[in-house]
């Protein structure tokens, strides 16, 4: 366990240094970017090692798995973010367990979350997920064609009017590629979409952009990310499921 903790800490600190360097190259302050360490499908021992290594912001993809971890680590002093797709029927697992949802991808899910947040007395910060690569395999509003952006406005407005959800910005997952530069135009597009929505709804804080993973987080930071989601590069590959 001590060796694992030391390895994770070394990779965690290296990642923070790379984020800081990328931010400075882009004329930004390093503290504008938060690192979400992704522990989806990792055993509890890895999560514990990450916390002992100094990680204070964890991201999970599967609500039930994440809630089990959260309940097993009470008072761990970390912030948990849900970054994966959430089925409407699992919306009740989010209020009270997560500090932010990165992947709000429909009015249907928003309405379900509103109901459960209202019942439990919680506010839930959320990011709207947009599919800027228009990939059929990805969730989120398909936003690769800028001419379609005005069509999003009624649904976005409906979500903004839900009193227990606090929209803070946008998230995307670009098409998977080995070359991180491939992601740059998609990150630029998400930033333009954020600016487009900010002009239409100026009362809302559209501060957050969640974009960039182990492969392309440096490019994400250079293009304005405020949250990057890095798993494998810090905690190692996910164990194979039996």
- Quickly count the helices: 8
Residue fraction in strands: 15-25%
The total count of strands amounts to 9
**Largest sheet, strands/sense/barrel:** 9 strands, parallel
Low-confidence runs of at least 5 consecutive residues: none
Helical fraction: 25-40%
Give, in order, the helices and strands.
Answer: HEHEHEEHEEHEHEHEH
Distance between the first and last residues' Cα: 23 Å
Rounded mean pLDDT score:
95
Shape: globular
What integer value in Å does the Rg equal? 17 Å
| Structural class label | alpha/beta
Question: What are the SSEs and their pairings?
Answer:
Elements: H1 2-25, E1 34-38, H2 44-52, E2 57-60, H3 63-72, E3 79-82, E4 100-104, H4 107-120, E5 124-131, E6 141-142, H5 149-160, E7 165-171, H6 184-200, E8 208-210, H7 217-222, E9 227-230, H8 232-235
Parallel strand pairs: 1-2, 1-9, 2-3, 3-4, 4-5, 5-6, 5-7, 7-8
Helix pairs in contact: 1-2
Explain what the structure shows.
By secondary structure, the chain is α/β, with parallel strands linked by helices. Helices cover 40% and strands 17% of the residues. The chain contains eight helices and nine strands. It has helices at residues 2-25, 44-52, 63-72, 107-120, 149-160, 184-200, 217-222, 232-235, and strands at 34-38, 57-60, 79-82, 100-104, 124-131, 141-142, 165-171, 208-210, 227-230. Strands 1, 2, 3, 4, 5, 6, 7, 8 and 9 form a nine-stranded parallel β-sheet that branches. Helix 1 (2-25) crosses helix 2 (44-52). The protein is globular. The relative contact order is 0.15.
